[in-house]
Write a structure and sequence with these properties.
Blueprint lengths: L13 H16 L1 H4 L21 E2 L3 E3 L5 E3 L6 E2 L7 H19 L6 H26 L4 H10 L3 H9 L14 H17 L1
Antiparallel strand pairs: 1-4, 2-3
The structure holds flavin-adenine dinucleotide.
The site of flavin-adenine dinucleotide has 9 residues, from α3.
């Protein structure tokens, strides 16, 4: 997050300093990993990367200089922060969704209205990725911290959370709302105790 504790890679003086700052962050925030990383070295002088961008959802229909229309796909139309690791699968799911829309269109025109319909069909699932990723970017709410703590001891909670990476639509049913999250953990705890 801009201005956050990990926002330390501006004005870095070369790859060596980039690595040093990375290790400092690791030591401070994930010391259990740092212990395994004290002897690391860069593979080469081009092995570091620093940058930033703002998660964005764009109008899917582009107009070319020739006047023709282009339908945006993947990151070009929906780009999320990388922290949930959703980008590659989302781009593939976008392509699959567009393919289905193209085949169903048959001989009808691939005009702007159709492009927006094709995008909306993809967005019906992609919006869950965006909502969840944006939620993970912020400070976790108390019920989210409880949920993740519960996942440390309850296999069902851990499985459901992990499977959300495959289908983030499921987060709508328990992750965002404190009451639903608490009910889910209480139910999983009861089952876990009985089982
Ligand atoms: C730092 C970082 C970490 C990430 N980590 C993960 C992760 O752990 N897991 C995950 O799933 N995703 C991750 N992503 C996101 C993932 O890389 C992207 O979401 C995914 O690559 C998007 O696929 P795409 O096909 O839409 O676009 P891209 O993979 O960007 O492909 C677009 C292609 O178009 C080409 N191109 C651009 N302009 C032109 C032009 N005018 N003519 C011809 N070709 C052109 C580009 O060279 C590029 O090859 C990460 C992204 C970043 C930046």
């Amino acid at each position: 997050m801009p201005g956050g504790p990990l926002d330390v890679f501006q004005h870095v003086d070369g790859p060596g300093e980039h690595l040093a700052r990375t290790l400092e962050l690791l030591e401070r925030y994930a010391p259990w990993e740092y212990g395994r990383a004290t002897a690391v070295e860069l593979t080469d002088a081009h092995a570091t990367l620093a940058g930033r961008y703002t998660p964005t959802v764009r109008d899917p229909v582009g107009r070319l200089p020739s006047g023709g229309l282009a339908l945006g796909v993947g990151d070009a139309v929906v780009v999320n922060d990388p922290l949930t690791g959703q980008g590659s699968n989302s781009a593939a799911k976008c392509a699959a969704s567009y393919l289905a829309s193209i085949i169903e269109r048959g001989d009808e025109p691939f005009d702007a209205d159709w492009m927006r319909m094709a995008f909306e069909r993809y967005w019906a699932s992609a919006r869950h990725v965006t909502r969840w990723t944006n939620a993970m970017l912020g400070s976790p709410a108390r019920h989210v911290r409880s949920l993740i703590a519960a996942a440390g001891g309850l296999q069902h909670v851990a499985d459901r959370f992990a499977n959300g990476y495959d289908d983030p639509a499921d987060f709508e049913d328990y992750f965002f709302d404190a009451t639903k999250a608490e009910a889910f953990v209480a139910e999983a705890t009861a089952v876990g105790v009985v089982g």
